[in-house]
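pinning this so it doesn't scroll away 📌
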Amino acid sequence: MKRKITYVIGHKNPDTDSVCSAIAYAELCRAQGQSHVSPARAGTLNRQTEYVLETLGQDPPELLADVYPRVRDVVGETPITIFEEAPLSDAVQLMRRHDIRMLPVVDREGRPGGALVLKRLPEHVFLPEEGGRIRQVLTSVRSIQTCLKGKAINLVEAERVDLLELYVGAMASQTFVELLSKSNPRNAVVLTGDRVKVQRAAIEMGVRLLVVTGGLPVTDDVREAAAKNGVSVLVSPFDTATSALLTRMSTPVRHLADKELPQVNPDDLLSSLARLLTHDGAPGAVVIDHEGRVAGVATKTNLLKSSAIRLVLVDHNELSQAVPGADQVEILEVIDHHRLGNFHTEMPIRFINQPLGSTCSVVASLYREAGVAPKPRIAGLMLAGLLSDTVLLKSPTTTVVDRDLMDWLAPIAGLDPHEFGQQMFKSGSALAEYPTPEDLLMADFKEYVVGERRFGVSQVEVISYAEFQERVDVLTEGLSALRQARNLDLAGLLVSDIVEQNSQFLVCGEGDLVSAIGYPQITAGLFELKGVLSRKKQLVPHLLRAFRDQ
């Protein structure tokens, strides 16, 4: 099973605060001795965030499209397999040594040829098919030699696999000859100790294989007779009873492998594997990698294992905004500054939610509380997230703590917060740089639920409404398409002018919801929001109250 890794990750459609707080908090965790903690993101970076990372020399966090548990998370990294020509006895030893119930059978390239299922093996050894005989075993002389670790005296067609019959020469030679005469001696395997008369009789009758047990010597005349009559002879170091049992388990495993077992890919969802094993009744599945080689075995026991991925959520606490699959993995912590959403966990977790202007402000506070001085690059990232979410400290969400933290971070980062902030917003304010309306609308988009109604709001900051006014018609069409694609009752774009400290709100939605917005209307579907810069603290709480009344 893969080593546990903790990802610090923000919401879908990440903004600067989300990305920068993830990087900074992951760095703090590592500084405090936590291993295998990495920052991640749940979507494409917007223009502003790209500018911040490039300016500060920070690589973008790993992109996680989802964190759904997958087959690769719960199977071993080194598969236990057995070569197709190995005897069954070797397979049983492997299963016992590794305490496994399924063993994939592979060729020399590691490609699958089915698998052995432990609970089905006694059928092959002790319960022959109808019409079969208990003494019969499908094997070859070579496989018996391997099983017995036997010394070869004479070998004839050692690789040929046949259905052979086992006989123990533990009786008088005449009685033995009478018994063997009732079948075809050429298909017989005779095991005996130092009963030379039985040995000679078996060779004269032309048996397929004579096994001399107990490591006893073979006389020269027996050797010569075996060579003359084309009879294979082995010397087993084991006693007769043990040799007989091992010979019964000498069948090459390729003949016993269950070839009907399902196959899965390491990237398949664990939920799909659960359905396969639960509903189809299969004892397990063989995991096949992208090169067609066996990568392991997945059984119902694997379903009990937890995913290798664990999460720390930053800048959100609602699963509707989290990376897909977050509800199926362990969430260790939440670091946020938003309203409480529909979030619950199976176990107690660390939950920090402070009414500050940004999540970077919360993380910076944690640095100070821990007595850890951030590196200049990390200080710059937290400063960027703080300035972005507070709109250069102009947003009503800004607190005294945010201002204090800005004054603490800026000297460490070696940055002028006013100049750095202006450049940040200029880098992300050119609407024309987004290739399509969808790219612009999804750059910072969040969904909300009130009762049975769902709505989504995107936000973009500009330094002038000129570009926006030129693209109102195109963006209206984009909102309509977005609303239909996501099955929303209303979709809107909040365009905030950080110079004038006002916003305009473009919407497309159900008539009763549009009417409930309540702000002055400029044109159909476009509202003027004077003094509004914060989606989180100003617009969304207003919409939630208004739509709840509807």
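📌 and the second one:
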Amino acid sequence: MKKIFHIIITVAVLALFIGCDDFLDVNTSKDSPTSVTVDQALPPAIFYASQQVYDHAEYAVYLAQALTTAGKSQTSTYAYSSGWEFLSMNRHPQWRRHFYDLGANIEELKKAAEKIDSKNFILIARTIMLQSTMFTTDVFGDMPRSKVYLDTSPAYDSQEDIYDWMFQEADELVELYANPEWAANKANIRITKKMDRIYEGNLKKWELYTKALRARLWLRKLPNWENTPEVCNKIIGMVDEVLNDPAWQEPRFNYTGGTSEQNAPWGPYAPIINAWESRGNRLATSIPTKFFAYGVLGAYDNNNSENARKYALDPRVEKLMTMRDIADKKGSTRLRWLESNIGMDVSMRVTNYPDLYGSGDNPYTLNDGYIALITDEELMFIKAEAQYWAGDKAGAYNTAKNATIHNMKRLGIVESELVGNALKRYNVFFEVRFPGESLFTIADLMQQKYVAMYLQPELWNDMRRYNYSSKTNGITYDNVPVYTITTCHNGKGTGIGKPENFSAEYSLRRPYNLYVPYWMQEDAFGQNAELSPNAWINRLNYDPETEDKYNKKELERLGAYKNAEWLKKRMIWQYNNSGKAVASDPTEWK
């Protein structure tokens, strides 16, 4: 990994978002900086912290099989949405975002803050770095941390050591935010809105976000790693401490709209950050999967209703995607989907499928929308999951239901404002998806979190935490396959259906057209290739543009160098240490 000169990046992004306060301006020319000051370094760090959420979500929405594309090639520039052939991709934005855009600039920010003893900048910088480290290790595993900027080819820390550091760092940060010698330090320079577009330097709010990050961190203990009542209760307490604090405010980076990076990354403008190292969103050319549209959202088999013109059990579907017309025998507008990577029929066009920018009610897909570093719903679902595994299924039921209602409100669906068929459909949804405390399962909980985490990084993290559990791979938790879903087989007449009509099943399965050399195995005679039993992707390969060139020895030591088997290796939080998972294949956990 080569250490780059990062002040150039700082100033380039800075120019897009802020004007310089001049109280610390020591540069002779603002176009040719000779040093970086805290007021210059913080804005790009916060901007990239937001962009990082998108980077991970952009992969996650395909790897968790919510979206697919019209093609069916085994190889492409976007391996995460085609055949999982990752080794030929020349870079991953997540890797560079952490080590260069964030890590290198935050190192400079901390140095500048230490020089003037402005501890408030250091606290925010460390919080952002904690977020970034967690995102990065959760998709790559082992990676440089303790010696990252000491050498051009730094040694990799194990994921176990990285998690030990993150647990310790989270606790220490919470203590420091509460320490007046840090939070109320007389040398602290006031942080303005120009520097901090999320919390305007309010350290209490940054403290609560740090506590929220700690709750997400501890959730990795569930359901496999350390699933005990003590851990579950600790997680519940962490979430309550955040959500019950009147100072809590969801951390949002708001975009103004306009040109380039002024637009939200999931919006129709689809900005590409720093051009060569990032990717714009591809919602304009993507298609909802059968798993997401038919299974999770509960799309009706019968779409011929003209009564309410509704398309699925879940009323959020029209907020997330807008159905478009196509000439068929009824002339109707229909919700259409594809199996993952199966490819589009030659008679169809992408415009025959839903517009994934939605109705204008989804705040993430607007040019002037926002990125949330963590959402209220995510915290509520974290609590619900901990309640479930602690044995409080009634509490989990109510918390998950409230989280789902909260997510609906984010999209503009409010029960008190609904009438007629819209209200009936809303009620039927809750009758089907929340059938009662005694019937509530971990599958019901995680499927609703799946909808709430659409276009969020946790979408894929959750699916991997539950090891893609479904009837197709034979892995169950609490005796249920988590991603096997009861869906609707009849919306005839009202476009709403009745609870008793929701009896069809759909299970998560591996995508079609996976890259044969990596993901298929042949029998003893070299014939009848089948997907290997562990052919789920569990991690990304290290960024070839840097690591293959400058850190090859470390990759070889790990067994990761140009090795597709590395992609199948589980994260430390996926192994069945708690014994909560049951697999039909006895070799599954090897």
